[in-house]
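chain below, 304 aa
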Amino acid sequence: MGYVGLRWYKCDFHLHTMCSACYREKKDTPSEWVEEVKRKGLQCIAITDHNDYRGIDEIKAICEGEGIVVFPAVELSCDSSKIHILILFDVHCEGADVRDFLAKVGITKNELGNSANTSNGSIFEICDMAQKAGALVIAAHIDDYSGISQISHDNIKKVLDRKYINAVQIVNKSVWDVYENNKDIKETCRLLSEKYDKEISDDKAKEWYKAYSLAKEAGLPFLTFSDNPCSEKDAKHGLWGIGRNYSWLKMDQKPNLESVRQALLSYDMRVRNEYESPNKPDAEPELWIKSIKATDTLLNMLTS
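prediction:
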């Protein structure tokens, strides 16, 4: 008997392919890339190259043969601060749909794949355009480099509204947990410096924490994804990091963008991050009731 109803899916919605300029091993093939997705047990992914669409279609075709759900997407650099946001399109979309959106926001052919290039318009205008296009918007690594922490306090609060974004990606929760317990900024900087293998200043740590705490205050869903680094403490992308960070979303039997949207709206019941659930949050029932038959009895019903 097949399982009918909502179920948990292991998701990584921040993944780069060989089309991103900062992907280290350009000789990696789409088949090898998908094989790593399978090896990590991912069931739903988003292909989010920097300002690019070219890596989507071939990988999507391979994934469809493997039963892996793919959301065509992009990690877009926007605003004068080059803030990164993830824009996800529905499963029936293709690279061309992302290409057309990039053209609308001013990313030219010569700028594809490079995070240093920035779209036209403010972050608010870009998010509004994405929402009107039916896409889903996630503020990328808000407590890290190139996140919303780079804009003013008032603008952070403004963008943390479901009018503009549907969720946020966080990367340093374990560090913020320590900070919220001891309020020791020096220890926080030490932990961050150790993680990034470079000195993180008090001001930078406070800037990242402010974005995290404001998102927490706004009640937006927190999500964890990998951004697939090529190795430990290396910002370039590669196979090694695929699925090292992930989120569980409880969705329909055939996930689509609306499934993700509904999961995010009910995130307290339908979203679990890896730090909450390293393994599948709950298993399917072992005992099923297929039918109930009553004989030789009287069923009393109350009437008014």
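The chain has a mean pLDDT of 93. The longest helix spans residues 202-218.
thats it, cya
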